[in-house]
Backbone:
């Protein structure tokens, strides 16, 4: 069995295979030809004794790290020989080489064989599309994170903790970091709320306050950890989203108090942009890094949000996010989330002042 990239010489056999495998939703000659010639697609075929017996086609979403398994087919007479599995492996490998971090697909809700194959490869269901196919059948949507950190690129094994309120991402992130450095440490909801009271700025854009990097660092030092803080500005933080002058004054006062307490505790504060190299070095040295991000690239909202860097390699940073999209989301989907380095650079700044701040935690 040979596996190779589709070429113009395969066009007629691909069309014949398409007709043999699918009664509806077949690719046209024009589409098939265009995909063969497309530079930003992965189009793999399987040949047996010169006869084309299978293919897999992956397309990419421009401007994102998302790929889509557009179609996969194996000659019915050749099924059961591992062809689909090898095509899936090649499709994922090609998608990774193109910079994709996630691979999505749609599958007929009644195609139990294909669904079983995808689940075997680690794909998870995340949606249902009604009346999706030409025959009005429903489609199951599935997704897989295809890029994961290798053991050597992971920081100290980071436990995952789900924040229990809408406003305690900072304490939850700090608890994950402390748990990575102290395996015996057990955290409770009470710990989460106590840390929030110690670290909160009191006011944010609206509602409950968010956590100040110096406040979180002070909370960590009080619990016998070392903290190194990076902040790229010296003025009070989080005031640009607050209109009320009285609230601004309170935030400024809290900021001043945190600076004084951090100095008294001899916490190292660097008033500069933390670099990706510094974050990567910290992870490799067994330290744990908390980073404030803007959630815009995650949920289209411009909210400040604390996460933990749980791994790093030459292409990505991996994050532990304490806040699932919904209460039913699988916790595994919130761990080792791959973020391309260039995307991380944009994500790890917040507000009109482009605040960039991080905390490096060690024993």
Residues:
């Amino acid at each position: 069995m040979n596996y190779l990239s589709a070429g113009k010489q395969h066009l007629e056999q691909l069309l014949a295979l398409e007709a043999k495998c699918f009664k509806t939703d077949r690719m046209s000659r024009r589409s098939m030809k265009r995909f063969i010639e497309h530079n930003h697609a992965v189009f793999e075929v399987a040949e047996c004794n010169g006869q084309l017996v299978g293919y897999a086609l992956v397309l990419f979403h421009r401007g994102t790290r998302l790929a889509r398994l557009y179609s996969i087919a194996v000659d019915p007479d050749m099924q059961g020989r591992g062809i689909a599995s090898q095509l899936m492996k090649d499709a994922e490998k090609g998608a990774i080489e193109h910079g994709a971090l996630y691979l999505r697909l749609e599958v007929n809700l009644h195609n139990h064989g294909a669904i079983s194959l995808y689940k075997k490869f680690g794909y998870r269901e995340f949606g249902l599309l009604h009346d999706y196919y030409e025959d009005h059948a429903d489609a199951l949507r599935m997704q897989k994170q295809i890029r994961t950190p290798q053991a050597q690129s992971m920081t100290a094994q980071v436990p995952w903790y789900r924040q229990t309120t809408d406003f305690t991402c900072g304490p939850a992130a700090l608890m994950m970091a402390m748990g990575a450095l102290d395996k015996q440490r057990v955290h409770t909801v009470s710990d989460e709320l106590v840390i929030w009271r110690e670290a909160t700025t009191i006011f944010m854009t609206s509602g409950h306050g968010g956590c100040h990097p110096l406040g979180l660092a002070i909370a960590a030092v009080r619990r016998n950890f070392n903290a190194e803080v990076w902040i790229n500005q010296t003025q009070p933080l989080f005031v640009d989203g607050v209109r009320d002058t009285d609230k601004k004054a309170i935030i400024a006062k809290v900021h001043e108090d945190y600076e004084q307490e951090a100095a008294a505790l001899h916490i190292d504060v660097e008033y500069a942009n933390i670099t990706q190299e510094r974050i990567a070095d910290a992870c490799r040295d067994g330290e744990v890094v908390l980073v404030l991000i803007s959630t815009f690239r995650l949920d289209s909202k411009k909210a400040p949000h604390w996460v933990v860097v749980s791994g790093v390699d030459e292409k990505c940073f991996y994050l532990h996010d304490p806040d699932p999209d919904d209460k039913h989301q699988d916790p595994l989907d919130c761990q080792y989330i791959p973020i391309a380095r260039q995307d991380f650079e944009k994500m790890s700044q917040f507000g009109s002042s482009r605040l960039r701040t991080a905390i490096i935690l060690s024993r």
